[in-house]
Design brief:
Elements lengths: L8 E5 L3 E6 L2 E6 L4 E5 L1 H9 L4 E2 H11 L4 H17 L3 E6 L3
Helix pairs in contact: 2-3
Length: 99
Protein backbone atom coordinates (compact mmCIF):
# COMPACT_ATOMS: atom_id res chain seq x y z
CA UNK A 1 0.00 0.00 0.00
CA UNK A 2 1.42 3.36 -1.05
CA UNK A 3 1.60 6.13 1.54
CA UNK A 4 0.29 9.59 0.73
CA UNK A 5 2.94 12.05 1.82
CA UNK A 6 2.31 15.33 3.60
CA UNK A 7 4.70 18.02 4.81
CA UNK A 8 4.72 16.20 8.17
CA UNK A 9 5.80 12.79 6.80
CA UNK A 10 9.18 11.52 7.99
CA UNK A 11 10.97 9.82 5.09
CA UNK A 12 14.32 8.29 4.17
CA UNK A 13 15.92 6.63 1.14
CA UNK A 14 15.53 2.85 1.05
CA UNK A 15 18.53 0.72 1.94
CA UNK A 16 18.43 -1.59 -1.09
CA UNK A 17 19.67 0.98 -3.61
CA UNK A 18 22.90 2.49 -4.83
CA UNK A 19 23.27 5.94 -6.29
CA UNK A 20 25.97 7.87 -8.06
CA UNK A 21 26.58 11.56 -8.70
CA UNK A 22 26.85 12.22 -12.44
CA UNK A 23 28.12 15.78 -12.57
CA UNK A 24 25.31 17.36 -10.60
CA UNK A 25 22.67 14.81 -11.52
CA UNK A 26 22.18 11.45 -9.85
CA UNK A 27 21.50 7.92 -11.05
CA UNK A 28 19.79 5.52 -8.64
CA UNK A 29 19.70 1.74 -9.02
CA UNK A 30 16.97 -0.08 -7.14
CA UNK A 31 18.77 -3.33 -6.32
CA UNK A 32 15.57 -5.31 -5.76
CA UNK A 33 13.84 -4.25 -8.97
CA UNK A 34 17.00 -3.82 -11.06
CA UNK A 35 15.73 -0.50 -12.38
CA UNK A 36 17.68 2.73 -12.87
CA UNK A 37 16.24 6.17 -12.15
CA UNK A 38 17.73 9.56 -13.00
CA UNK A 39 17.30 12.88 -11.20
CA UNK A 40 18.26 16.38 -12.33
CA UNK A 41 20.23 18.86 -10.20
CA UNK A 42 17.39 19.74 -7.83
CA UNK A 43 16.30 16.11 -7.61
CA UNK A 44 19.90 15.15 -6.83
CA UNK A 45 19.95 17.65 -3.94
CA UNK A 46 16.70 16.22 -2.61
CA UNK A 47 18.13 12.69 -2.91
CA UNK A 48 21.20 13.83 -0.96
CA UNK A 49 18.93 15.12 1.81
CA UNK A 50 17.10 11.78 1.89
CA UNK A 51 20.18 9.85 2.94
CA UNK A 52 19.14 10.57 6.53
CA UNK A 53 15.57 10.54 7.87
CA UNK A 54 13.92 13.93 7.39
CA UNK A 55 10.47 15.45 7.48
CA UNK A 56 9.09 16.53 4.09
CA UNK A 57 8.68 20.12 5.33
CA UNK A 58 12.41 20.28 6.16
CA UNK A 59 13.30 19.20 2.62
CA UNK A 60 10.89 21.76 1.16
CA UNK A 61 12.40 24.53 3.31
CA UNK A 62 15.94 23.59 2.27
CA UNK A 63 15.06 23.65 -1.43
CA UNK A 64 13.27 27.00 -1.11
CA UNK A 65 16.33 28.40 0.67
CA UNK A 66 18.85 27.09 -1.87
CA UNK A 67 16.97 27.64 -5.16
CA UNK A 68 15.17 30.63 -6.67
CA UNK A 69 11.63 29.29 -6.89
CA UNK A 70 8.19 30.61 -5.96
CA UNK A 71 7.39 29.10 -2.52
CA UNK A 72 4.08 27.40 -3.39
CA UNK A 73 5.45 25.93 -6.60
CA UNK A 74 8.64 24.78 -4.86
CA UNK A 75 6.72 23.07 -2.07
CA UNK A 76 4.35 21.43 -4.54
CA UNK A 77 7.15 20.24 -6.85
CA UNK A 78 9.19 18.80 -3.97
CA UNK A 79 6.14 16.98 -2.62
CA UNK A 80 5.34 15.60 -6.10
CA UNK A 81 8.90 14.30 -6.56
CA UNK A 82 8.90 12.73 -3.10
CA UNK A 83 5.54 11.09 -3.80
CA UNK A 84 6.93 9.70 -7.08
CA UNK A 85 9.98 8.33 -5.24
CA UNK A 86 7.68 6.76 -2.63
CA UNK A 87 5.48 5.24 -5.35
CA UNK A 88 8.57 3.72 -6.99
CA UNK A 89 9.65 2.29 -3.63
CA UNK A 90 12.85 4.39 -3.47
CA UNK A 91 11.97 6.06 -0.17
CA UNK A 92 10.11 4.82 2.85
CA UNK A 93 7.83 6.65 5.20
CA UNK A 94 9.20 6.28 8.70
CA UNK A 95 6.22 7.88 10.46
CA UNK A 96 3.62 10.61 10.23
CA UNK A 97 4.13 13.37 12.76
CA UNK A 98 1.33 15.60 13.92
CA UNK A 99 3.41 18.77 14.26
Amino acid sequence: MKSRLTEHSAIVAIEHQVSSDLGGEVAILDLKAGVYYGLDEVGARIWELLQEPRVVGQIQATILEEYDVEPERGKRDVLMLLQDLANEGLIEVKDETTA
